[in-house]
Write a structure and sequence with these properties.
The chain is an alpha+beta fold. The chain is built from 5 helices and 5 strands, in the order E-E-H-E-E-E-H-H-H-H. It has a 3-stranded antiparallel β-sheet, with helices on one face. Strands 4-5 form a two-stranded antiparallel ribbon.
Length: about 180
């Protein structure tokens, strides 16, 4: 969170805010809770020399490289120019295209169905369901796709059929 001015760590330029202690004197602390690590550090005798193995977290923009010179390297990778930069906690930063009008309509309808059937509003879940149902040929294919990706929800057949209808309506503009 922060390093106090005048502390031992403040005088060590190799350690920074956000670094994670991986081991103390060879004892692995991977998966240990914050208070357990703090207790181990407090139990070390004063004046005792010890070894810390630290892991520096990835910096958010380290994975984004500089622009390459010239446009001769291949086809441009920007499709519509309408996108959002997503900085994920796990994995690299990605550019996510903005949803089309069809996707927005379908997500809104599926979100309404989620609320009426399950009592929840979750636009991300609705977007995932629309993505899975976009290429489904029939309600059975949608049910299989939902079971493979979202099986823990155990959606009833009636709900899956209504989701199929909502996606179909959004495709043809009936919303």
């Amino acid at each position: 969170q922060r390093i106090r001015e005048g502390s031992v760590i403040a005088r060590t330029p190799l350690i920074g805010v956000g670094d994670m202690i991986e081991a103390i004197d060879g004892r692995s602390l991977v998966g240990a809770r914050h208070f357990e690590v703090a207790r181990l550090l407090q139990e070390l005798p004063r004046g005792h020399t010890f070894a810390l193995r630290l892991t520096e977290p990835r910096r958010a923009f380290d994975m984004i490289g500089p622009r390459s010179g010239g446009g001769r390297g291949g086809p441009p990778q920007v499709s519509s120019g309408r996108g959002t930069l997503r900085l994920r906690s796990k994995g690299p930063a990605t550019v996510q295209e903005q949803p089309s009008a069809f996707e927005e309509r379908a997500v809104a309808k599926v979100d309404d169905l989620l609320e009426s059937y399950m009592g929840i509003r979750d636009s991300e879940l609705a977007a995932t369901m629309v993505e899975l149902g976009r290429d489904a040929r029939d309600p059975d294919a949608l049910a299989e796709a939902l079971d493979s990706q979202l099986g823990e929800f155990a959606f009833p057949d009636e709900f899956v059929f209504d989701v199929w209808g909502a996606i179909g309506d959004a495709k043809v503009g009936r919303c």
